[in-house]
Structure formats: structure tokens, C-alpha cells
Specification:
4 strands; about 45% helix; globular; alpha/beta; about 10% strand
Length: about 200
């Protein structure tokens, strides 16, 4: 991103890009409106929580989700389509040995359809720059203290690829339904700044 754009509000930059795309004949105003409406219809962290709950209760789905999330999403009635192009989704699984956290260092790339609108802190320069350099400290500020032996992997989203964290299933949840398990999952857990 060039320096001249950093002082311009994001909404103004987005509008300029939209205008240029329309002027170039790449897309029409109606097509942009339709893409935005499609993307935001049903956009909620409830979607991501449903995916997690299914992965916790169905080992086959979990394997398919981790191998090819885009192919697995239709099994729960979701997809990464809708918009100008389909985006690639990669789901990364937290384990006792590894914890994943998401960021987009250049923008605010984020799977809105699965996690709902991104929180303001996710788009902040402080989060975007610090979580890459000092993830353990940033997670501690969110209240997530990980054991020293737990490796932390930071995944940087891009315009083409989005990420979602598959949190570890909490202990003591055996026998709970998918709906009950989904209710335990938070947006922060899907980003990796919380355990669940």
C-alpha cells in the first residue's frame, strides 16, 4: 500500500476502487451491490461455530474440513462463494502442541460469511503488526495464557485465501449436541485470540 493512501479512510479507498472497476467495465454497480448483499446475508460467527461443532462430533467431516475446507463447507450448507470470486478457505486446528491465530497484515481480509463482520481490533494497526512479532504477548492481553511449550503459528490472510481456526474441544463436553457445542464457540476462538 503506498503512503498516499494510508491517510485516506478505508471506506473512501474502497469507493475509489469500486469506481475504477465500474469505469473499466470490469463490474457494474448492480453486480457490486449484489455481491455485497450476498456476502453479508447470514454472515455470522454462528456459521463458524456450526462448522466447529460438526468437526468436533464427526471425525470424517473434521478430516475433510482440514484437507479441503471449501469442499467440506456445503455439508453444513455453507460456502466461500458469493462475491466476485470464490475465496480459498483453510481451516487450521489447534492442538495441545500448537495454537493458531489469524491476522491480515496488509488489510482486513477476513471470512465474513463464517465469522461475521470483523471486530475493530482485528483491523487495527496495533493488532496487525504486533501479533506477528509477539503473538504470545498479544494473546495474553486477550486473556489467553498458553503454556510455554505450546507453539504459536500466525496465519496471514490475503485477498485470495482466508483462514479459520478450529479450536480444541473443551473437556467435559462429551454427549452434548452440535447445537450445544456450537453455543460454546466464540468469534475470538475462531480467530485464535481465545481458547474456544
Amino acid at each position: 500500500m503506498s503512503g498516499e493512501h494510508t491517510s485516506v479512510p478505508v471506506a473512501a479507498r474502497v469507493r475509489r476502487l469500486e469506481e475504477r472497476l465500474i469505469e473499466a467495465g470490469v463490474v457494474g454497480e448492480a453486480q457490486l451491490d449484489e455481491a455485497l448483499a450476498t456476502m453479508l446475508t447470514g454472515a455470522s460467527p454462528v456459521n463458524g461455530a456450526r462448522i466447529v461443532a460438526r468437526a468436533w462430533t464427526d471425525p470424517g467431516f473434521r478430516e475433510r474440513l482440514l484437507a479441503d475446507a471449501n469442499a467440506a463447507l456445503p455439508e453444513v450448507g455453507l460456502s466461500m462463494a458469493g462475491g466476485i470470486q470464490e475465496q480459498r478457505l483453510k481451516v487450521v486446528e489447534n492442538t495441545a502442541a500448537t495454537h493458531h491465530v489469524l491476522v491480515c497484515t496488509l488489510c482486513s481480509c477476513y471470512p465474513i460469511g463464517l465469522l461475521g463482520p470483523s471486530p475493530s481490533w482485528y483491523k487495527s494497526e496495533a493488532y496487525r503488526s504486533r501479533v506477528v512479532r509477539e503473538p504470545r504477548a498479544v494473546l495474553a492481553e486477550f486473556g489467553l495464557e498458553l503454556p510455554d511449550g505450546t507453539a504459536i503459528t500466525v496465519w496471514d490472510s490475503s485477498a485470495e485465501s482466508r483462514y479459520m481456526v478450529l479450536p480444541r474441544r473443551p473437556e467435559g463436553t462429551a454427549g452434548r449436541s452440535e447445537a450445544e457445542l456450537a453455543a460454546l464457540v466464540t468469534r475470538e476462538g475462531l480467530i485464535g485470540t481465545a481458547a474456544v
